[in-house]
Amino acid sequence: MLTAREAARLLRSFDHVLILTHVRPDGDTVGSAAALCAGLRALGKTAYLLPNPELTDTTAPYFRPYAAPEGFQPEKVVSVDIASESLFPENAKPYAGRVDLAVDHHPSFEGFGRENCVRPSAAATGEIIYDILAALGPITAETALPLYVAISTDCGCFAYGNTTARTHAVAAALLQTGIDFQAVNKTFFRTKTRRRLQLEAAMLSQIQYYDRERAAVLAVPLSLMAQVQATETDAEDLSALGGQIEGVDCAVTMRELRPDVWKFSLRTGPRINATRACALLGGGGHAAAAGCTVEAPFEEAKRRMLEAIAQVAPDFTL
């Protein structure tokens, strides 16, 4: 396993680099990729991001300036914030087995890169990319802005339990470059579309409680998305909603991706290890935030998840 400094030395030897992001891209994978791409270009390298068809309106502005032109043939491939090759978008699947460097912070990382730089203690992959870029040269505003997006979004604007003193120190260093962090905070944490509010209202009206009301299940079926004409941007980070309910330390969000194909997002307190529960269903992530996908009708998919949680939390009652 490489340190950030060793990863930086490796990257100095790379050129014509293609950077991969994961399916349903969030701020961490997009911000980390954009910052790394900008940093490599500052060294005179040719670097691009592989276009991701699932970008949202909030993350796209940080991604698109670095998107690879059609036909670009990389010499080296780097992945950021991707724990498993199963999380590659369709257009990234040809690069399975060809990743020269993988940078990630998930405990469930599967070690698919030829070289890997992984630090599960980091609040976001953006923290690791910061250390890599700092070893390559000065952190500029161009790299600092997407890094702030990466770190702030993965720790809930520094409110989640994965936030550390190191997270705040890196954020402070980024702010010292003069970036407009207030605009980022407004976009990602203080603005909701009307369709988003309709989604949240519908989810809360249909919420189901289990485990003596310590567990909440919230569902986003395709029919609800169609009903309110919601976009992927409207549905971004809906998994944060359940954890805001008083007394709930196990929030299960079920998002229907295709008919009877459910993406689970599990957000938990210290009583339940989310990664261990999701791993039983083929997923992974962090101790307090993990996910998996289950192909089954709603009730069966929900039952499988609740039973998985019960297996890792002895006091969980269905």
Question: Overview of this structure, please?
Answer:
The protein has about 325 residues and is α/β, with parallel strands linked by helices. The chain has helices at about 5-10, 25-40, 60-65, 125-135, 140-155, 165-175, 180-190, 195-205, 220-230, 275-280, 300-310; strands at about 15-20, 45-50, 75-80, 100-105, 115-120, 210, 215-220, 250-260, 260-270, 285, 290-295. The strands form 2 sheets. A 6-stranded mixed sheet has the order 6-7-8-9-11-10. Strands 2-1-3-4-5 form a 5-stranded parallel sheet, with helices on one face. Helix 2 (about 25-40) runs parallel beside helix 4, helix 2 (about 25-40) runs antiparallel to helix 5 (about 140-155) and helix 5 runs parallel beside helix 7 (about 180-190). The radius of gyration is 19 Å and the shape is globular. The model has no long low-confidence stretch (mean pLDDT about 95).
